[in-house]
Structures are given as C-alpha cells and as structure tokens.
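Quick question about two entries, pasted in order.
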Amino acid sequence: MEKISTTANVVRLAAGLRGKLGEMWTWETSGFYNQVNGDDEAFPDVRESRLQQALARTDATAYNPFGYTFRVQGNAVVADRPYTNPAATVDSFSDVFARNAESSILSGDLRLSGRLLKWWGGDIMAALGGEYRADDLADLRPPFSGENPANSGLQTTDNDFLLHPARPDVVGDRTVTSFYAELVVPLVGAGQRIPLVNTLELTASARHESYSDFGDTTKPKIGANWRPLSWLMLRGSYNEGFMAPSLAALFTSPRWSISAGAGDIDTYRNPVTNEGAYVQRTYFGGNPNLEASESEGKTFGVVVDVPGIKGLSVTADHWRIERTNLLGQRGTAQIRASDVALLQAYTREQLAAGRPIAAIDLGSGTADYKGDPDVVRYAATPEDAAAFAPYNAANPGNPQAVAGKIFSVNQPFINIATSDHEGVDLGLRYVLPKLPFGNVVLNSEWSYLVKSRSVQRPSNLPAIENNDLNVNGATRWRGTTNVAWRKGAWTGNLGAYYIGPWMDSGAATTAALYESLGQPDYIAK
C-alpha cells in the first residue's frame, strides 16, 4: 500500500509605520514577506530500472510478477503453486518519490501624501511613493523523481518512476522596482462663482516599473471632474495598464498526458485512412518567451445628486477597455484544425506547381514540417504511403499528401489574443431620511455590455474573431441591489443579484438525459 505524506508550511510577516511631516504631509511605510513551502513524498513507488533488473535476475532474488510458480507438465508450462515475492525483492525496486515546492514574495513600500501648494482653486494635493518586490518560485525534484541524472545510464529526458511523468525542475525569480506620483488639481472651486463651472478638478498620475525580466514601463492615468451645477457632475478618465506574466506561466516545466481509452482522432489522417483513434501525447507548460499584457481604458459619465430629494444620487458611466497580448492556450481542437489547414494549403500549392501527389513531402518528423508548429509527427513510412494510396486513387480531385502519425500536440501558454470590451455602468444610491426604526440605505448597480470582441491569432493562421454576446458568461445585463439597515448596534442587509441569459457553448447533453433531469430551463434549447 502506498503512503503519501504531504507537509506544508506558511510563513507570513507584515509590519507598517506611519507618521507626519510637518502640518501638511503624512507618510507611511510597510514591509511584507510571505513564503509557502510544500513537501510531498510517496512510498513505496516503483523504480523502473530496478524493476527491470529484478525481472532479469535468475536467482532467488528475482521478481515473479505472476503470483505463481510454474512447472513443465508434458509439453506445456502450467501454474504450479501460489507464490509471494520476498519483501527484500519488492524493496529492491521500491523507493521514495519526492517533490519540494517553494514560493515567496518580499515587498516594501514608502508613500508620502499631502498638500503640495494652495492656490485660488483650492489645495493641490500630491502623493509620491515607491515599491520594491522580489518573487521567487522553485519546484524541485531529486534525481530520478524529476529527471534521470546524466551519469545514470538512463534517458535524461525521462524519470525512473513508473507512476509519475518526467518533470524537470522549475526555478524562476523576478524583482520589480516601481515609483509613482499622483496629483489632484482643483482648477475652479465653488467659491469662484464662474457660470457653468461650479467646480473643475483634474487628476493625473503615472507609474514607472522596472522588471528584472521585462524591462521598464511607464503608464499614465488622467481624469477630470466638472460640475457645471452643484447637483450635476460630468467625469472622464484615460488610463493605460501593464501586467507581466506570472512566474508559473513563464517557467512551469513541460509535462504531458495521454487521453484515456483508445486515444485521439488524427483529423488529417483519419478521413483518408479511417484508422480510428490512437494514443498521442499532449504537452502543456510554461513559456519563457511570453510578452507582457497591456491595456488601454477610457471612461466618461455623469453623476446626478437629484434636486429636491436629499440623499438620492444616480450615476451612469460609459467605458471601453482594449487589451493586447492576452495570455492563454490554444485548445487541442484549434491546434488540430490549424494543422489540417496548413497541410492542405501546402499540398494545394505543390499540386498547382505541377508536383505529383506521391512526391509531396510534408516534412513529417523533421524541423521542416509544413503543418502547425505545435504538432509533432513521426516520419512518414512506406506503410503510411500505402495507406494513403487507395484514397488518392479514388479521389483524384482532392488528393492528400502523406503525413506520419502524430507523436504529440503542444499547448504552451502563449500571447493568444487581443480584446475590446465596451459597456455602460448604472448606479443608484439613496440614503433615506432617518426613520423611527433606524437608518436605511439603498444601493443598486447595473452593468450593460455593449460589445465583447476578442481576436485570437493562432500560429500561421489568420485571426479568429469572436463577437458573440450572451455566450460563455458574456451576458448583456448584470446587476446587484442591496438594502442596508442600521439602528444602534444592530445591522441588517438584504441583497439580490441578477445575471442575464447566456449560453455555455461547450455544454452538451443527450435528449434522454435532459428529459431525466426534468427539462431544466437553464439549458439552452
């Protein structure tokens, strides 16, 4: 019986200080450290090389996998009697599979804020600050648990435990230094009595970050709040964002899996050979060549403190966010479709150039493969050519060049898409007049999605554009409403939320199962 032991430790330290500089400025600083450790051990796990040695021995220490001894009876080998391997024999190929993972964050920051100067519009307020952060990630496995060492005589891209795939160590680190500044500038105050300018305020900020692995970036944000009347405010802002990929997305070691059962269908070969499913590997893991995601956002809106109804305000804001280099993975179906499209396009090109179908080389098993770069195929064999020949003879108008079987499909993290989202946010807040039974506040916030557009750019294929709304969570309407009550030390809250109709495009069921579930109305018909 295998025993799995897991030990986890968390260390978290945080401290802060704050104070004043003169009468107008305050400062605060903080430090933070968080470390997570995890150790996994499993015993007994089977070492493949030692098991092979035990199977190959011919003395009393040899391993008998059958549970019986055998003897020759007549001209046949028959089972003789039950047999239990000695513990020493089983122990000879048993070992501890181990793994150690550690992640830590160390950060510190300093912030100053206060009045920069006073002028006719009011106080110009400023904030200055800096931050430092160090991230470390390590996922380590001892020799033979992760990969076989070079001097072991075993394949170094594999490991020696039967029940665990090979996984090289993952090590990554990053330091980030950042500085930022913010300004709030009241251009016109309520006391200036300028027609249609009750107040006018500008805000501006910028943040500069220096990454040890992504270089430097500076992103701004500007905004304006204008009250033409005391009860009406118009506002707008523009901002840019930057997000580096996580250490895990960058450095997680490649690993692979295979589909259960017979395997997967080769969508290029199967229509020709009708060979059915076969076992293929699917690799996934980090990608050290990822780029940072960036964004650009714009908002403008209105705030109305409803005249004549004290405590009631209504807001409406239009927003738009455009993002580039979004992180993601292509699905295996998408990769296979890309592979088929590229192979068929190359075949048509070669046929148009006058090359016979039997002479077209798709580069299977080589670096010059003409299909999707995330598909690896075995070199085409004479048996493969023989399997394609009957189809090509029967379909002279649509012949297919010979390709070897798929060895693996790769699904690394990539900068897969850009997106453009646009919507309107609506809000209502009403602080009711004081009532005999306490104070009541009503809040209601709603969002209407005008546009949800994403463009994926798979390798070597034109962009795939998706403008679907009400699909996979991109519903038009979302909203929440809360009523809060307070009287003395007593509080209460009543809330409700609404999500508009949408369809899960990946969901599927049978008519019989749908009927057996009572025809639930959350399944799209």
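Here is the second entry:
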Amino acid sequence: MKISWRWIKDFVEVPFSPSELAEVLTNSGLEVENLSQWKPAFSGVIVAKMASWRAHPQSNHLSICTVNDGQRDFSIVCGAPNLKVGERVALALEGATLPAGVKIEKAFFQGVLSEGMLCSEKELGLSDDSAGIMLLDPDLPLGIPLERALPLEDWIFDLNITPNRADCLCMIGVAREVAALTGQSLRYHPEKKFAGPIDPHHQTTVVIERPDLCPRYVAKLIFGVKISPAPFWMRRRLQSVGVRSINNIVDVTNYVMLELGQPLHAFDFDRLEERGIVVRTAHPGEFFTTLDGVVRPMPEEALMICDRKKPVALAGIMGGLNSEVQAETTNILLESAYFDPMGIRRTSKRIGLATEASLRFERGIDPNGCLRAADRAAVLMVELGGGSLAGGTVDNYPRKIEPPKIFLRVSRVNDLLGTSIRGQEIRKYLRNLQLEVEPQGADSFQVTPLTFRVDLQREIDLIEEVARLQGFERIPVTLPSGRVSAEKKTKIQWATERARNLLAAFGFWEVITYSFISPKVLQ
C-alpha cells in the first residue's frame, strides 16, 4: 500500500520528518518497506501569464505569444492549440532543465526569436498529456517556481499492511494511526451536501436478494455531469500512489477509495435497464463481460450487481463493460456498498481476478462508512463534473452490523505484557484509537471499537493495541526462570524403559508415528 506524505497531512499534523515517521510506523506494526522522495525532474520552470498571442506570419501551426512573469514580458514561439489570453502557464526560460536533461535556450523559429518554452504536462514529466500546454490555477502568483506553486514534492511510504489491518489500506486509516501514536487530533474534510430538487427514491430502487452477502447498499444519483480529465492535483495524487487517471468521475471513485478505504463504483445511469439495481447471485451457466473486456463464466455463488434485466457488475471486484462511464455519459448512479468478505474472497479466487476493490472488501471494510464515502464522492463529482445531486440517498441496510463489546481487565494486560501500566494510561491509549471506553469497576473496562476496526474482537486484541501504543521497546525483557531438581523414576517409567530395551534386544524397531497417518499405511 502506497501512502502519500502530503495526503496524510490533510488529516493530521505530523510532528516528524518522513524518515522519522517511517520508523515510528514500523515500530508500531505498520512496516514501511520503502520510503522514496517524489520530486519533479525539471528546474527553472516558473508560473507566468499569457498576455497575448498571434499567428506566426511564416507558419500555419506556430503562434507568437507574449508571456509575463510579473516583472517583464517574454516572446515565446509555441505550437500548442490551447492558447488563451489570461491563463496561467508553465514557462521554461533560458537555462531551465526539463526531464531527460533537455536544456532550454533561446532559438529562432521561422525567423522569430523565442526566449523560452511553454510546457505541456508530458514535457515536464508530470503525465502523458501532450495535447496542449499545461494550464494552471488562475490564482497562482506569477514568477514563483512551478514545483513550489503546485506543489509537486512529496514522500511516498510503501507499507506492508498485515491482513488484519484492513483499516490502514487508506490515507485516513494511516493518519488515524499517526494521531493515536502522537496524541494529535484527527480532522476530516468538512461535510458538504448539495440538496437537489429530485428525490432519488422516485428515480431508482435497490433490491437486495442476498442480504447475507450484501448487508448494505447505498446509491446516490448525480445528473448532468460532463466527462473530462480530472484536475491536475487529483491526477498527481493518484499517480503518486500508482493509480492511472481515467476521467473526472472514475478518478473520484478511486480517489475516495484511497482516501477513506471504501471502494466505489460509478454506473452510467442511462444504461441501466428500468433504472433499478438488484443484488443477486449468478445464475447457473451465466457469463459476464468485465471492464477489462474479458468474458468470464460466473460461479453460482458469485454476487452480481444487476439492473432489472442483466448483470452490470461483479460485486466488490469489477464493473461491467455494459455500464461503464463513457465520454457521452451525463447521469451517474454511484454505488457505495458493503459485501461479505468471505464471499468476495471466494469469488475472486474462483475466477482468478483480484483488484484494489476486492483486496479491501475481502479483508473487511467499515460497513458504517458507506454513506460518508458516498457523500464525499458525490460532492467531488459535482464540483469536478458539474451537474446536480439528487436530494437524498437510497440506503438499503437490512442487516445492521454492530461492533462487539469487549471486556478488558487491567490486571490481565499487565500480566501478559509484564508491565505495570495504570488503568488511566490504558484508557487514554484506547481512546486515542477512537474506541469507546467505559469503566467497569476498579480494574476493568468495557470497550466498544468502531466498525472500521474489524480486527478487534477479543480481549487479547485490545492488549495488543495497548502494547503497540505503549511501545514494544518499553515492554521489559525477562528471562523465564525455573529450578532443576533430581527426581527418581516411577515404577511405570522403569517398566517402560526395561520393556523398550528388551524389545530392541529381540530385534524390534521402535517408531514414532504421526496421529494423522492411516494405520493402513503403516500396515
């Protein structure tokens, strides 16, 4: 799991350097396998403003641009098609260095001097987009280095997340750990909700035929969106953790999954037959074409997301080619659901298809985080794609999942760890993990973990959390003690030894067998 330093800092203040944080996380059980710095492969590129442009008199495809850096004008010859007066642009002046060691110098193009170069994202090594020059935020100050303006520098942590810590497969999960380890406060993005005039219950329905495999399904509708590239800041963050940008709507689903740990899926609402959702298992002999274009036979226990007539997604694993968001899509049905981990794992193994979504579902996500993630994604889709959000949510939750209540004894904590941690310290550690802690007498607590911590089920699990936050290095090292004394053999031991020696003397072989070996094999 790749984690972005800048992204984590959206949610918590980090009082460490990146290398110090890597050590803290590793010592607490979140092993950092690699720490790498992400920085731009260029220098000398600044933010400038397009003051004017005109066609090159000697060329049909070149333009002569006047670009200002806040202090003076520069004449730049450019062949990009997306020139627009007033836009902020990336300007590489004489002496600048671009990726692959390209040096920028003044040059003449068809008899006109160019004092630098206006850069595309591909020329800066920031993406594969070479369709035109990079257009920047209009509020950026002129003349400052581009790497500071965007900003582009980051540190990427490659974490080895153990199977029981599914809550740490996202930025907020790791930020929650940092907050617990440092005593800092965790902050969430402020909730924004657009109350649209359309009631989604009048537009769509969600029927769950297998609530044991799908205890919760949340659907939101967004109308009138425009499919376009996601903004640079989102594409950059996705790229930093190894996710390819597709378009603004699909990128939002990936962004929120990485941020909150909830896999999402966006359907083209107009391609759903009768505009309804049915959650059922596959029919015998059913085939389904997934987003990667592969036609797959479906196991009978595979959970399918369907419209009123056909499957449109393989639940928790991959969407269908017949309902994907396309360039002409305008209306979106957003899915945010909770699927049974065992069911997703079984289907993923049977068909040989593992995805980022299935990785999270089969380890266990937060069933009570579906609505938060849906709200976050819907707001981002409206902000980045325009359109309007239906005023409400279809939330089918037939089997509400409640967290366990765990009895924790202070004496048991200290007995197992060999420590003398006070009850108040234990209570503070657990509350730092956002667990509800209620005293139960002088020596014990009743602890209720929130549902994102699917790994906390027993007292021993809580004792492990106390050990992590206390610090493994602070747990005393003790050697086992014992006393050796000479004891006489019993009559049975003497008889057994005598019988063994006699049988060996008569030519028998002594064997030690395993209990799971069949007697027939030995015979």
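Reply: The radius of gyration is 31 Å. Residues 370-385 form the longest helix (16 residues). Hope that helps.
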